[in-house]
Amino acid sequence: MEKFETNNKKENILVWLDFDAYSYVNFGIVIELAKLDKYDFIGVVTTKQDMSFFENQKILPFKKIIYYPNCYINKKNYNIENLKSFEKNFGLNLWLDIFSERSFYKYWTDFHKFSKEEIYSIVENSILFFVDILNEYKPKLVLTQHVGENISNLLLHKITKNLNFKTLMPVPVHMHNKIVISDNMIGQEISDEYEKLIKESSNSLKDYDEKFIQEQSLLETVSLQFSYSKNRNLFEKFNHYLKRITNNPEPLYKNIGKTKLNIIKFKIKNYFEVKKREDFLNKNSEKSIKNENFLYYPLQSEPEAKSLTETPFYVNQITLIENIAKSIPINFVLYVKEHPFQKTKFWRSIKDYKKICDIPNVKFIHPDVDSKDLVLKSQGIISVLGSTGFEALFYKKPVILFGDDYYDKVSMVTKINSFLELNQKIKNSLNNYRFNNKEINVLIQAFNNQTISVPYFLLLKDGIAISSIQRNVNNPNLTITNFKKFFETHKQSFKIIADEIYSKI
């Protein structure tokens, strides 16, 4: 691999090197950007294990490597006036952002329940840290992964945009091996391109149907995501958990309360609880599709960055399902299917499953039922956001969305702004649906113009393997050796991403 020299006269790129795969994937991207000989790189690292890698590697010398958690570790004080001014000066709604952090509320809270004061301290110190590094290094670009995995990169993204620094991230879209390099969370560039192109008339239209979308299916993507947890062999898994119960965890906010004893007790309890959830799901969900009128609602997997950050007022899916069920025509039922990826997140609580099953005009569908058949046999799709609605367009089905997505400008999509309008908009969508082939053609053209083709989820899978070596073996030299193999394997993909980023800087 090439080595690079830094030049103080170059412009800076700030690189967010987050946990697991993201730090190593973003590192691969900036190695390719460095070949342009135009930029110096400031790395912001979120874990000590990754700090040792980036400090020891000689592949790309960073101008500066900064350990982010230092800004809040062992700091408990806060100034509410500072937080108020942050909201005003950076256009933030801090409680909305706080609720998106899984460790602060609802999801990853088994080991510690954060107080309001603890949250205030972490948030205030994080914002001060981000403002300081942006003002000090004045980067030409801030490069992150798709934001929303944690409050840290979400705040960094929002503050960066407010201060008028360029920020970009790879955003996966609803076709396999397609991403858009975007400055926002939904890939709005596709929607903007659609609105520009739709004004131009075209007489040469292709037929895009279910066969087209089946060939672009996300099934392989989902299979790759399922395989993430299978990267480690049995010995590696045993070694990983042995280290977790014998070593003190790094003092990150997400590790507060994770004592050795608590981890052991949680693992034992969780094993039996997950087994009970799966048994309930198998016994109480439908495994066939009846010949009846139904709308199809695909559950969003939880927790998920997209729903927590892009549709924060629809994250209570039980309430959402109840409101949909109240609003559908009397001769319809609502099919609610569990997301297959929820298995990797230990399924939902039995209490939630019971609530869904108890709604009289709802049928709870097993995750193994083919989503393609559900779309095909339904009278329409109603969803918060996501790929099912996009795919339904090619099955010529009406689509109803609660959130913003890049395909929501086509006339076959109905947007819901209030539960009060839900009943009437469902009726209008079912009764007045018209398929528009021109819009589909323009949408695909906009999609092709704005996306690039790279196996992004394969990059993440292989990146997790590198992170696992660094975490479990704790040998930076071994990690460096394996990273070099990882980079050479995916060198062309990193180049494609880097070229697209450079074209947008």
Rg (CA only) = 24 Å
Please list the strands of the largest sheet in the order they lie side by side. Answer: 3-2-1-4-5-6-13
Number of strands: 13
Q: What level of helicity do the residues show?
A: 40-55%
Question: If classified by CATH, what would the architecture of the domain at 213-437 be?
Answer: 3-Layer(aba) Sandwich
Low-confidence stretches: none
| Coarse morphology | globular
Instruction: Supply the helix-strand structural class.
Output: alpha/beta
Share of β-strand residues: 5-15%
Distance between the termini: 25 Å
Secondary structure layout:
Layout: E1 11-17, H1 21-34, E2 39-45, H2 48-56, E3 64-67, H3 80-90, H4 94-99, H5 116-137, E4 141-143, H6 151-162, E5 167-172, E6 178-182, H7 188-197, H8 210-215, H9 219-227, H10 234-246, H11 260-284, E7 294-298, H12 305-310, H13 317-327, E8 333-337, H14 350-358, E9 362-365, H15 371-377, E10 380-383, H16 387-394, E11 399-401, E12 413-415, H17 422-431, H18 437-450, E13 452-453, H19 456-472, H20 476-489, H21 491-504
Parallel strand pairs: 1-2, 1-4, 2-3, 4-5, 7-8, 7-10, 8-9, 10-11, 11-12
Antiparallel strand pairs: 5-6, 6-13
